[in-house]
Amino acid sequence: MCAERAIEPALFGISIQPNSSHCGLHLSAIQIPEHCALLGLLRQERIILASEESSIYAGDVVLAIALHPMFTPALRVALKRSHPVYYSLNDCLLETPVAQKCCRLF
């Protein structure tokens, strides 16, 4: 008799950074390798299932599973895609001379 070897799937979470390419997207919009699945999001101690189609935000943790450990590196690369520079509609990391002078007044 041939005994099948049990392979344990790799379950992990990836924290979404502010410069992530996935910010604002739904989980279903992320392209992942075969034999992998996105289970949901962890947001402020709340689990949001993938079926809820919630948008991804910076600070979220994407919960994922690779059916075989050899797919884990490719899945991590897919989930860590980011823009080459940090940007945000609400923040600017560059300080202007005017902003520096205003801050010194207070």
Describe it for me?
There is one protein chain. This protein has 106 residues and is of the alpha+beta class. The longest helix has 9 residues, at 97-105. Helix content is 16%, strand content 23%. Mean pLDDT is 81; it is low at 92-106. The chain has helices spanning 72-79, 97-105, and strands at residues 10-15, 36-43, 46-49, 61-66.
> Helix and strand string, N-terminal first?
EEEEHH
Q: What is the helical fraction, as a range of percent? A: 10-25%
Structural class: alpha+beta
Q: What integer value in Å does the Rg equal?
A: 19 Å
Shape: globular
- Please give the alpha-carbon distance between the first and last residues: 80 Å
For the largest beta-sheet, the strand count, sense and barrel status come to: 4 strands, antiparallel
- How many runs of DSSP E, i.e. beta strands? 4
Low-confidence stretches: 92-106
Q: Trace the largest sheet across and list its strands.
A: 1-4-2-3
Question: Can you give the mean pLDDT?
Answer: 81
Q: Which percent range describes the beta-strand content? A: 15-25%
Please give a handful of descriptors for the protein shown.
106 residues; four-stranded antiparallel β-sheet; 4 strands
Quick overview:
This protein has about 110 residues and is an alpha+beta fold. The protein contains 2 helices and 4 strands.
